[in-house]
Specification:
The chain is of the alpha+beta class. The chain contains three helices and five strands. The chain has a three-stranded mixed β-sheet. Strand 4 and strand 5 form a beta hairpin.
Length: 158
């Protein structure tokens, strides 16, 4: 049995399409611009815990709706990192590559982990996606430990 043929959890509010065997899933059937039921919010948290990264296609959100949706997962902080922010929603930074800054965000990094209490994650809303490039790469920090969890035997000693 592989990740893709294993039974996926049943969710009542959306359909899950796994993205890779190790990380990520696209969730279909939700309108993130609308308030979500308590059950939908609980299922979203469970999906994030299982897949580590969740994607939603074809959403149209205002900055306030993005922040409201992100609050489902916990506190949304105003971050003073490296990019300009949306004036009406200081929790949102505008990360874009332009002619003046063609590679503004083209480097490996881990979002906001330098803070004493880093957030559980980052909410990204892509508005302009180039035909080529513009990729975001995700890395699972739990996949390497799965053999330990399955066998209850340590593979390495710290």
């Amino acid at each position: 049995m592989t990740f893709f043929t294993a039974r996926m959890p049943d969710y009542q509010n959306f359909v899950v399409e796994p993205f890779t065997p190790n990380i990520g899933a696209t969730l279909h059937g939700l309108d993130l611009s609308q308030p979500l039921s308590d059950l939908a919010q609980t299922e979203l948290k469970a999906a994030l815990a299982r897949y580590e990264v969740i994607f939603f296609r074809d959403q149209v959100l205002t900055p306030a709706q993005q922040v409201a949706f992100t609050r489902i997962f916990g506190q949304v902080n105003e971050v003073k990192a490296f990019f300009p922010r949306v004036e009406s929603q200081p929790e949102i930074e505008i990360v874009e590559s332009t002619a003046e800054r063609p590679a503004a965000n083209n480097n490996w990094h881990s979002d906001i982990t330098w803070q004493a209490n880093p957030p559980i994650g980052t909410s990204l809303y892509a508005q302009v996606i180039p035909a080529s490039g513009g990729d975001t790469v995700w890395a699972s920090m739990t996949t390497p430990t799965r053999p330990c969890l399955l066998t209850s035997k340590p593979i390495w000693k710290p």
